[in-house]
Amino acid sequence: MRCWLRSNRVRPKRSSSWAICHTVEQVKAIAQAFGVSVKAAALQFCLAHPAVAAVIPGASRPGRIAEDVAALSEKIPAPFWQALRDAGLISARAPLPL
């Protein structure tokens, strides 16, 4: 599934992708409300699972590596994760980076 950005909105490239793009929009809105970067939330959420030892974000440019490192250090408030759960975007059983 691929989405494209236009006017800071996510749009699907295929009609079957609307649900996924809607979920992305929800995550972005909650992240913005809490002043959290989506990159930081994604990286830290992946690392919260005890079975995960590392994440490999796949930087497209050398400068992105520094962004990824900074994202791992970004402070994310616990209410952000609760808001994602309340919106049904994260399972109640999923481990969180608290």
From TrEMBL:
A GO molecular-function descriptor: pyridoxal 4-dehydrogenase activity
Pfam families noted in UniProt: Aldo_ket_red (PF00248)
Chain ranges passing through the membrane: none
EC number(s) on file: 1.1.1.107
Enzyme class: oxidoreductase
Keyword vocabulary terms for this entry: Oxidoreductase
Domain NADP-dependent oxidoreductase: 21-85
InterPro entries on file: NAD(P)_OxRdtase_dom_sf, NADP_OxRdtase_dom
Keyword field contains Oxidoreductase: yes
Protein name: Pyridoxal 4-dehydrogenase
Gene transcribed to yield this protein: pld1
